[in-house]
């Protein structure tokens, strides 16, 4: 006589378990989708920070922050994208916001200082760098420290920071170029020439270092092209730079010869060199 009661209890139990299983299943599915969304979100953020148009990335991270203002990765993304888009003043403001978030790191403060330097606020940049713990020794930090020291004409400190920065990276070409330019502005042309040559050996595509090397040699009245990798267009541009340096130093005839050589060398019409030569000839006429 008790069988129907037991059967009813069993059915109730099975129904409850089925309901429980359904709820657990839904929760599992939701968690899975959430995890997938996080992965997709991270991948999209990476794309936005690398190959996307910087202004498009700014729009993406602005929308993402509107949805969740607590996401420090999206705040970083917005700051980075603004700097990439050459909107450095806005970028500095967004980096400042990053530094005030709970999970901010010393590297965030260094990025903030970098944006401040790009926007010309050297005083605030120095204060931000001074707030980074001295134990946080990175290439980015010392590169900025060197630039700040340069801006204050503290040459000994600048040289020390540049040297440290070079030792902390496997790609030192750009910082060697900066160091060389620092030497160039001080009138230390020989050492500038060495540093520019070193930078080119590290990165043969770095045209700014090639151009600076020509400036350093021309400042010593050496009007011969250095033996470095260059294509025909680069050769013409470097001859043009050398010509203008010669003219500036009063070596006008040498400058005219170099301008003509630059015009003859360029694979296309070299308008800037043509204008310079024409102006010289008209002034002499």
Automatic annotation (TrEMBL):
Residues 1-18 form the signal peptide. SUPFAM superfamilies: TPR-like. Keywords: Signal. It comes from the Bacteria. Gene3D superfamilies: Tetratricopeptide repeat domain (1.25.40.10). This is Flp pilus assembly protein TadD, contains TPR repeats.
């Amino acid at each position: 006589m008790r069988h129907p009661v037991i059967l009813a209890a069993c059915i109730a139990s099975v129904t409850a378990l089925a309901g429980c299983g359904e709820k657990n299943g839904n929760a599992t599915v939701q968690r899975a989708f959430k995890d997938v969304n996080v992965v997709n979100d991270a991948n999209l953020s990476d794309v936005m920070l690398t190959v996307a148009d910087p202004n498009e990335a700014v729009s993406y991270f602005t929308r993402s922050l509107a949805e969740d203002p607590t996401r420090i990765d999206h705040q970083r993304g917005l700051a980075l994208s603004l700097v990439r888009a050459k909107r450095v003043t806005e970028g500095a403001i967004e980096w400042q916001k990053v530094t005030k978030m709970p999970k901010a790191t010393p590297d965030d403060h260094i990025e903030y200082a970098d944006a401040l330097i790009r926007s010309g606020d050297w005083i605030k940049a120095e204060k931000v760098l001074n707030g980074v713990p001295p134990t946080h020794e990175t290439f980015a930090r010392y590169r900025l420290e060197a630039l700040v020291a340069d801006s204050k004409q503290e040459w000994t400190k600048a040289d020390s920071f540049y040297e440290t920065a070079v030792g902390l990276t496997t790609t030192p070409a750009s910082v060697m170029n900066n160091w060389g330019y620092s030497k160039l502005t001080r009138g230390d042309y020989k050492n500038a020439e060495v540093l520019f040559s070193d930078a080119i050996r590290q990165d043969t595509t770095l045209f700014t270092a090639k151009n600076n090397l020509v400036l350093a040699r021309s400042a010593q009245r050496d009007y011969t092209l250095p033996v470095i990798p260059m294509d025909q267009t680069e050769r013409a541009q470097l001859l043009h730079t050398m010509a203008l340096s010669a003219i500036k130093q009063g070596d006008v005839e040498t400058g005219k010869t170099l301008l003509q050589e630059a015009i003859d060398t360029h694979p296309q019409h070299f308008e800037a060199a043509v204008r310079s030569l024409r102006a010289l000839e008209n002034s002499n006429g």
